[in-house]
Amino acid sequence: MDEITINITLLDRPYRLSVARADEEKVRKAGNLINERVKYYSKHYAYKDVQDLLSMTALQFATSVVKMDAELNFRNQELERKLQGINDLMGELA
């Protein structure tokens, strides 16, 4: 695996990470999304410290993952059902 070292800044704190070269852009984009979301929450919600903002951000992203996972599972089941129907039709024609 071709790894590189990159620097990512989250909430004004630098982090040095080793990532696969192919994932660099994705990791940088994820870092930017976190910073943008935290900035949004800091402007729109009351909070005691940065941990509150990070918790809200983590919850939002985790919820998105759960929703996408459920949608992917549904689509896979639908695809399997349709492929089985096609397979059954082809079996009838044979």
Description:
This protein has 94 residues and is of the alpha+beta class. It has one domain. Helices cover 69% and strands 17% of the residues. It is built from two helices and two strands; from the N terminus they run ββαα. It has a two-stranded antiparallel ribbon with strand order 1-2. Strand 1 and strand 2 form a beta hairpin. It is elongated and about 65 Å long. The model has no long low-confidence stretch (mean pLDDT 96).
Key features of this structure:
single chain; 94 residues; alpha+beta; two-stranded antiparallel sheet; elongated
Order of helices and strands: EEHH
Question: How many individual β-strands?
Answer: 2
List the strand order in the largest sheet.
Answer: 1-2
**Beta-strand fraction estimate:** 15-25%
**What's the overall geometry?**
elongated
- Give Rg in angstroms: 21 Å
Q: Catalogue the unreliable spans.
A: none
Spatial separation of the terminal alpha carbons: 47 Å
SS element count, helices: 2
| Structural domain count | 1
Helix-strand blueprint:
Blueprint: E1 3-10, E2 13-20, H1 24-44, H2 50-93
Antiparallel strand pairs: 1-2
Summarize the structure.
The chain is an alpha+beta fold and 94 residues long. It contains 2 helices and 2 strands; from the N terminus they run ββαα.
